Amino acid sequence: MRLFIAAIGRLKKGPEHDLVARYADRIKKSGKVIGITALQKVELNESRATQVDQRKREEATSLLDKLPQDSVLICFDERGESPNSRSFAKTLGKLIDSGTQDLAFVIGGPDGIDPEFRKRAAKVISFGALTMPHQLARVLVLEQTYRAITILTNHPYHRD
Questions:
Q1: What CATH number corresponds to the domain at position 59?
Q2: Is residue 28 a part of any domain in this protein?
Q3: Residues 146, 29: Cα–Cα separation, whole Å
Q4: What is the pLDDT of residues 81-94, one digit of tens each?
Q5: pTM (2 decimals)?
Q6: Between vectors from CA 30 to CA 44 and to CA 37, what angle results, nearest 5°?
Q7: pLDDT on residue 42
Q8: 109 lies in which domain range?
Q9: DSSP letters along the chain, please?
Q10: How many Cβ atoms from other residues are within 10 Å of residue 75's Cβ?
Q11: pLDDT of residue 78
């Protein structure tokens, strides 16, 4: 399975960039065991439209243009469910076991994700109602993905 981390906004050099690189490297190395064959980062500029709804639509269109057509989408949005790490790992494992070819984790821009785009998602996940910069959301997505891989490969998990 190819894994895509798709985000609106560009990640600049700095501590968040370093953490993203660290977890991406860990995912590439440990994910092979469970069938993750590639990790690709997709970064898109924020829309410059003046209306919020138009910005979200334009960003959704840009995301769909950059991702493989049949990608399974998991959106990270404050209106989603808040699974624990084991539940997130179970979701990832089921997608791998079902033969999913392309999985895209999508992080919207400052205005969030277009509602129609969100409807296309297999799952919408929230890290809580707190507002956070997309750079930190990207770090959390990668960290939780790495944690899910370690859970799926039976590494000791401190919550057991």
A1: 3.40.1280.10
A2: yes
A3: 10
A4: 999 999 999 999 99
A5: 0.94
A6: 55
A7: 96
A8: 2-152
A9: -EEEEEEESPPPSSHHHHHHHHHHHHHHHHHGGGT--EEEEEEEPPP--SSHHHHHHHHHHHHHHHS-TT-EEEEEEEEEE---HHHHHHHHHHHHHTT-SEEEEEE-BTTB--HHHHHH-SEEE-S-SS---HHHHHHHHHHHHHHHHHHHTT---TT-
A10: 26
A11: 87
Count the Cβ atoms, other than its own, within 10 Å of residue 74: 20
What is d(CA 56, CA 54) in angstroms, rounded to the nearest whole number?
5
Split at pLDDT 50, 70, 90, the class of 44 is very high
Domain count for the chain, please give it: 1
Residue type, 151: I
Tokens encoding 157? 């998990």
End-to-end CA distance of the chain: 28
Partners of residue 38 on adjacent β-strands: 2
